[in-house]
Design a protein that fits this description.
The protein is mostly helical. It contains 7 helices and no strands.
Length: about 160
């Protein structure tokens, strides 16, 4: 534009960084992080989808809270909640399965195997099927005892 023409030329500073497109970010409560991690595992299972549980909601709330304590570093509180849960629901394979997941994640292989063994005793087909794809068990997947429990064959390692 010519100077003095009476028209105003827009000024654009092309050196200014334009912020990126907005993203949806959510800060979840610790129990929700565990819930969504487990939800993801359920969709990676051989038969994806949610299945209704006959266990009370409080059971699952305790599982999520116990895992959240462990994720935040309070393993003692997490184990206490699981011990109470297993005492209150001694025939619920899901409690033992989730306790095994916790112990496998924190590196206690013996306790993880013990809890998983009980889950298999209570509900062999479901416990084995879920464990095959659950990333929580990655730390014990090469343990012969775990492999034996998954396969249903006796542990040849003694």
């Amino acid at each position: 534009m010519k100077q003095g023409s009476g028209l105003v030329e827009p000024v654009v500073d092309r050196t200014v960084n334009v912020p990126p497109e907005p993203r949806f970010v959510v800060d979840l409560e610790p129990w929700a992080e565990v819930f969504f991690r487990n939800l993801g595992d359920s969709f990676r299972a051989p038969e994806p989808g949610l299945k209704l549980s006959s266990l009370p909601a409080a059971f699952w709330e305790d599982v999520f809270v116990a895992n959240a304590y462990a994720d935040k570093g309070d393993l003692e509180q997490a184990r206490t909640l699981f011990a109470d849960l297993l005492h209150e629901h001694p025939d619920a394979w899901q409690g033992f399965f989730n306790a095994a997941c916790l112990e496998a994640r924190v590196g206690d292989k013996d306790q993880a195997i013990e809890h998983f063994q009980r889950a298999v005793e209570l509900e062999p087909e479901k416990a084995r099927e879920f464990a095959k794809t659950d990333s929580d068990f990655d730390s014990i997947r090469d343990d012969p005892r775990f492999a034996s429990l998954i396969s249903g064959e006796p542990d040849s390692g003694g």
